[in-house]
Design brief:
By secondary structure, the protein is of the alpha+beta class. The chain has four helices and three strands, in the order H-H-E-E-E-H-H. A three-stranded antiparallel β-sheet has the order 2-1-3.
């Protein structure tokens, strides 16, 4: 009898706790995917070469230097492709994305 009374008195609180628990379980499952990393994988420095997606490879690549004449890495946000980030840019514009990173 006491359990029934307790449930009747605290029914709204119990439903709120169950609802909150169910809602939080969905929030835990929802994770944001990490950005994709690409590194410049070509020796070409001709005009437009840095914006050519075929000159890039997915991954971290080797370490970047602080000087040099080629780009090093680019992070591509979730939901975008590399061409969305660098497509149509000049070599100088691609180099300006991460001015402290260069590859020799």
């Amino acid at each position: 009898m006491k359990i029934n009374q307790f449930l009747k008195i605290n029914a709204v609180a119990i439903v709120a706790i169950i609802f909150t628990g169910a809602l939080m379980s969905f929030k835990i499952v929802e994770k944001k995917a990490a950005d994709k990393q690409f590194y410049y994988n070509s020796t070409s420095t001709s005009a437009g070469a840095f914006a050519n997606v075929s000159n890039w490879a997915e991954g971290a690549g080797s370490s970047c230097l602080t000087t040099g004449n080629k780009p090093c890495t680019i992070a591509v946000p979730e939901g975008q492709d590399l061409v969305d980030v660098i497509g149509g840019m000049t070599n100088a514009q691609v180099l300006a994305i991460h001015p402290s990173e260069r590859r020799q």
